[in-house]
Amino acid sequence: MVLCNGSSLNKKATFRVYLQEILSGPNATLYEVARANITSVSPTNFGQFLVGDDFVTTTPDPNSMRLGRTQGFVAFSDLDELAIALTFTFIFTDGPYRGSSLTIAGRKLVLGKNQEIPIIGGTGGFRLAQGYTISNLVASTPISVTFMYDFFVV
């Protein structure tokens, strides 16, 4: 997993993390903040806007080591497909990338597999980062969702 030292700049890195999203309850990490007039009748939730502050872990187990958080927002932005436009910043507070962050932004099919999202920048050891991440749904319950993110930083 460690191909980039948190203090090194502009190093290549390939690694996997898990995003733990809690959808409801007192510890929810994702909240709706706006919706369009069409959202309630749209089969694709068009116009719904959500903000999240999710946990990033080393394994799919939500109780595994926390590497940091993912903060950002999603907007359901397609009238025909269940798709979102997203911007997330992965903020690493522990592990080999502690003190660094990576920001991704792009379009993602909600139910799609191997969704490629561009890395648009970073801080710390990932300053001026480029590359992409591949996202996949790992687990889903009515209360929580776990996504796997494979990062390819160049």
Automatic annotation (TrEMBL):
Family annotation (InterPro entries): Allene_oxi_cyc_Dirigent, Dirigent
Compartment annotation: Secreted, Extracellular space, Apoplast
Domain of life: Eukaryota
UniProt keyword annotations, A-Z: Apoplast, Secreted
GO biological process: phenylpropanoid biosynthetic process
Keyword flag Secreted: yes
One cellular component (GO) term of this entry: apoplast
Pfam families: Dirigent
Function: Dirigent proteins impart stereoselectivity on the phenoxy radical-coupling reaction, yielding optically active lignans from two molecules of coniferyl alcohol in the biosynthesis of lignans, flavonolignans, and alkaloids and thus plays a central role in plant secondary metabolism.
Family as reported in the entry's similarity comment: Belongs to the plant dirigent protein family.
Quaternary assembly: Homodimer.
Name of the protein this chain belongs to: Dirigent protein
Upper taxonomic lineage: Eukaryota, Viridiplantae, Streptophyta, Embryophyta, Tracheophyta
